[in-house]
Structures are given as structure tokens and as C-alpha cells.
Amino acid sequence: MADSEQSREKQPPCTICNRPAIVRVHPDTHLCSIHFAASIEERVTRTIDEEGMIRDQERVAVALSGGKDSSALLSLLHEFAENRGEIDLLAITIDEGVSGYREETIKAAERLTGTLGVEHRIVTFRDVYGHDLDEFLRSREEMACTVCGVLRKQLLQMEAKRCDSTVLATGHCQDDEAQSILMNYLKGDTGRIARDASKSGHPVFVRRIKPLSRIQEREVAIYGMVKGIYTELPECPYAGYALRGEARKMLNFLELRYPGTMEKLVIGYREVRERVRVLNHPEPVDICESCGGPASGSHCRACILVQRLVPCRLPDDLIPSIRSAPE
Asked: Percent helix, strand and coil across the chain, each rounded to 5?
């Protein structure tokens, strides 16, 4: 008891209201749960407004996996929409079919959308592609993140378009952005370095936004705990095959030794991207013959990948075409 009382005595007060602080955001600034949550909400709103992510009358599709980042994003955008009054939200969950993992995250997604009263749609790999991710990856587990990432993005785009969404929001935080940047540099992928999905003008491409891109992962987790939406979930069994895991370790080490590393990497990357865009890296301008989505040739990357995994001609009705969705 004495140790507990002593710990409370040492806990610094909130810089704003003098309540017990839960987090230090700067060397001389500590915030309680109320003011920490308010600061996150204000920073996300500022990011949305400064980058012109969401305008009035938008229908915003939120990619909701059920994990901490996407759950925090949906909660924050729900708050944003409540304050603006002219924003329509829906959540889209992609069920890749990962046994022992995805079932729990879907339950978390369903609980959150039920609590917030947000429309929720679930799209499965099996319904669209005829196979679960587990089936796709038999004896080729090293392809897990490539297969999952490419196909999940395709289904998010398709469902967002089908639902008349004008914007697709994803829960990528600052850590995710920094990791992706480092991986693009390590791979020498100038095409990805140049690409900016938030500014794509492709007629069948739903514009993607990342409202959490200025928020650190630890801040997202604390926000989820404060708001009562954080759920401990199992890690994806394929995570060990990802280059992202190595990038995360490297960046976490550098961030610990040199605070601000990830933020500086993201800021510097924006200038690099604009310069690389000049080197003739246009956005895809063709239409995929299989799915009707944006492509850099006759077929998009996702459809080529599916045909590689299942070596046969895809039936015309296997992938619901984006063309059939209302404009």
C-alpha cells in the first residue's frame, strides 16, 4: 500500500488541468487521459484539414481490420463526422481467411461498429477469389505479405467503389509510414516512392487517405486504451515472413537513440517523392480487363497475382467488376 501511495505521489500532474497525468508528450508537458485524447483528436483533425483529406458531403469508407490502429481511426473519424455533420461513414473489413487470427479481429470490428452505429461490410477472399489466404500460401508462406497486401487493397478499392465512397481511409500511423519508406528505399522501388494515392485522379480509383500519419503507434495504442476500444489480439501468424518486421526493429532502435527519427524520415520522404515524380513515374492509366480497376497494362497487379496462384483463366464473374459500381 505504501509503495502504491508513493507511486501516486510521484506521478506528475497534467500540465493543463492538474489531474494525474498518464503520458508525457514533451519533456515539459504531461497530459491526463482527457487532455491526451483531446490532443490526439485535435491533431488528427488538423491533419485532415491541412491536407484536404475529407470535404463536406464525402462518403468515407474506413478500412477496419479490428486492430488497434484501424479501430482508433474509426473512432476518431466518427468523432470528426459528428462535429462536421455532413460526413457519411462506413467500415469495410477484409476477411483474408487466416485461421486462428482473423476470427478474433472480425469480432472486435463488429463490436466497435455496433457500439458506434456505423455501417459495416465484410468482404472475404473466399467469396471473391475462391480461396482463403491460408490456401493461397500453402508451401509459399514467404509470399504472405505480398499476396495479402495486394489482394486486400484490391478488395478495399472494389467495395469502397461499390458503396459509392469518395474516400478510403486507412489506419497507417507514423510508424507504418516510416517503415514503408525504409522498405521502399531498401528495395530501390522508385515507382512506389513516386506514387501518392491521396492525389490519384484515376476515374476508377477511390482516393486513399491516412489521417493517423502524424501520430505515433504508441500514441494510437494509448488513445485506444483511454477510449476503451483497445483489444489485445493475436499476431498474424505470417508476420515473421515480413521485411516490415525488420524495418520496425531498425526504426524503433533508431527512434529510441535519436528521438524524432521517424518523423524526420516521413517529412523528408515527401520532398523526395515530389522530386522522383518528375522522373516519369505516372499513375496507372489503363483499365484491368479482369476486374475493371486501374492498371499499368491489360491486367492489374492483383489479377496477375491471382492467376499466378491459381493457374487457370479467371471466370468472368469471379471478381466483381468495379465498372459495374455506380459512378
From this structure: 50, 10, 35
